[in-house]
Amino acid sequence: MDEQKSHGPSIKDDERYEALRDEGYSKQKAARIANTKNPGKKGGKAEIYENRTRSALYEKAKEVGIKGRSKMNKDELIHALRNN
């Protein structure tokens, strides 16, 4: 039986992290997705970032672990969420 590798306390779902890394995701992006409570699926019906408040964007950035978020304005938060 395969033993699941632990990536430390910063990765909440080691199995999902490994699967994402195997698919070619970067370490940072795989960690962000593995740590998200409900990452959803491509083509989901989530509200587009531009329609969200800065507060909501900040909370999403906090959830996925984007650093420096407290100093970001709405446009910067959108950029960070899309590119991290």
From TrEMBL:
Residues 55-81 form the Rho termination factor-like N-terminal domain. Residues 1-26 have a biased composition (Basic and acidic residues). GO terms for biological process: DNA-templated transcription termination. It comes from the Bacteria. InterPro entries: DUF7218, Rho-like_N, Rho_N_sf. Residues 1-48 are annotated as: Disordered. Gene3D superfamilies: 1.10.720.10. This is Rho termination factor N-terminal domain-containing protein.
